Amino acid sequence: MAVLPRFVVKLIDCVIYQLLANSCYKAAKKVRQYGFLFTNPSLKTPNQHPSFYPHVSKCSLQNRASQTLVCDLNGALLSSSKNYSFFPYFMLVAFEGGSLFRAIILLLSWPILCLLDWDAKFKAMIFISFCGLPTKNMASVSSAVLPKFFLDNLNLHAFEVFQATGSRIVFTSVPRVMVEGFLRNYLNVNDVIGTELQTFGRYYTGLVSENGLLVKHKALIEYFGDKKPDIGIGSPNLHDHLFISLCKEAYVVSKEDNKGQPTPTSTVISRQDYPKPLIFHDGRLAFLPTPFASVCTFLWIPFGVLLAIYRICIGSFLPYKMGLFLSHWSGLRITLKGYTEASTEGTQKRILFVCSHRTLLDPVVLSASVGKPLVAATYSVSRFSEIISPIKTVRLTRDREKDGAEMQKLLSEGDLVVCPEGTTCREPYLLRFSPLFAELSDEIVPVGVKTWVSMFYGTTASGLKWLDPIMFLMNPRASYDMVVLPKLPKEMTCGGGGKSSYEVANYVQRQLGDVLGFECTKLTRKDKYLMLAGNSGLVAPT
């Protein structure tokens, strides 16, 4: 029995010896390779030492429109106070483009990845995230998921310099397919030079091309030849020093940017400064999946499923007030403002509640909040969502005449809830309102809806829509805030005021936009699904 412990100790000793020997060898090799930087004056820029460059905030923004800037997305344009080696973004690819199983494998490999050098770590993350991944899945993640997280972490100082220049070239060791869509569509870069991946048919093999990971300084020399770019921005490490030393001016983005700042997000651009509005995005994760956050998420999922079942049960079988109390106790906060029974009295007709649309649960939460059963008319709801719904739901067909007749019938039987946007929107924007509701009744009550989630989004464009309500209810903490506006004045309706249905729809949209602080757009449901999923967004009734 004593042989086994000795064998384990010897095995551990051997592994540590090999890792240290390999690391020391690579370190010596890199020092030898890059050592000439400190002795070759031809590679030094005037008044600059290769091991030190001014912070990017010191770069003047004046008269830069005709100049060329080169930089990397990782470590330069993206702010990060932790050195995760792009791990959270590979986790997004693995989880959103692959599967939960792939994401767990990537997470379990993280302790081992920490023992590897940078090149080996990066190649390992690429292999785990991409091996067997369909190319169409990566295209969807690149265009619909990653841009949101890239925008949330754009470094303010680097972005200001980036925007001031006329020509922008990004060199990155990150797989080009992960970043090119964002860089071209949101930052208007002229070219993206990144690591290329091998494919087999319609799938990635997980291997990089024959050229290996992109070596930025070599790629820059190959791209520009003898010409030097005007500005180079990089991180304060040896690899980037070599890269930006080939530019006329060089600046660094320090990892210590947030030290001494009042908030950790002080060097990240705000939503108002986004180069392009982020109206639509997809994916289930509502946070950047760092290693620690990913561990918490995967440990939470079994409990989240049980919590979702609990919340469904109390919403379906308990009285409204008790259900709301227990929902609040479970971490789901629901608030309703502006609604009183008197606000909907004084008419023999049924009330038509017109809601802004955040999740499939909007009509359910409104029904529970007002304390009476409502009927919901909605588009593209799955059969599973209809089954678990505690209120009556009717699926519309998108045939104007049939839908109008169906909603008119439902309205004659009781109060009705409609969401004229036709689809959900996560960000503070309102899509164009379909005018059909204005032709049904003059008893219109607008309802503004805001939601917040801590872990999972309860909407998707390309995923399994029947999971939408489950994912929302799995959140450890979430909130639903509703504001009921006064009933529309008669002079602003079709019957009483002679307004067209389009005028009424636009009026209601503006009213809800003002009370919620949302921006009104003319975008439609079709625009959303074409952007995010490349389809019309119809859901099969299964």
TrEMBL record:
<dbReference type="InterPro" id="IPR002123">
    <property type="entry name" value="Plipid/glycerol_acylTrfase"/>
</dbReference>
<feature type="transmembrane region" description="Helical">
    <location>
        <begin position="86"/>
        <end position="116"/>
    </location>
</feature>
<protein>
    <submittedName>
        <fullName>Glycerol-3-phosphate acyltransferase 1-like</fullName>
    </submittedName>
</protein>
<keyword id="KW-0812">Transmembrane</keyword>
<dbReference type="InterPro" id="IPR056462">
    <property type="entry name" value="HAD_RAM2/GPAT1-8"/>
</dbReference>
<comment type="similarity">
    <text>Belongs to the GPAT/DAPAT family.</text>
</comment>
<dbReference type="GO" id="GO:0016791">
    <property type="term" value="F:phosphatase activity"/>
</dbReference>
<keyword id="KW-1133">Transmembrane helix</keyword>
<dbReference type="Pfam" id="PF23270">
    <property type="entry name" value="HAD_RAM2_N"/>
</dbReference>
<keyword id="KW-0808">Transferase</keyword>
<dbReference type="Pfam" id="PF01553">
    <property type="entry name" value="Acyltransferase"/>
</dbReference>
<feature type="transmembrane region" description="Helical">
    <location>
        <begin position="285"/>
        <end position="310"/>
    </location>
</feature>
<dbReference type="GO" id="GO:0090447">
    <property type="term" value="F:glycerol-3-phosphate 2-O-acyltransferase activity"/>
</dbReference>
<dbReference type="GO" id="GO:0016020">
    <property type="term" value="C:membrane"/>
</dbReference>
<keyword id="KW-0472">Membrane</keyword>
<feature type="domain" description="Phospholipid/glycerol acyltransferase">
    <location>
        <begin position="351"/>
        <end position="452"/>
    </location>
</feature>
<keyword id="KW-0012">Acyltransferase</keyword>
<dbReference type="GO" id="GO:0010143">
    <property type="term" value="P:cutin biosynthetic process"/>
</dbReference>
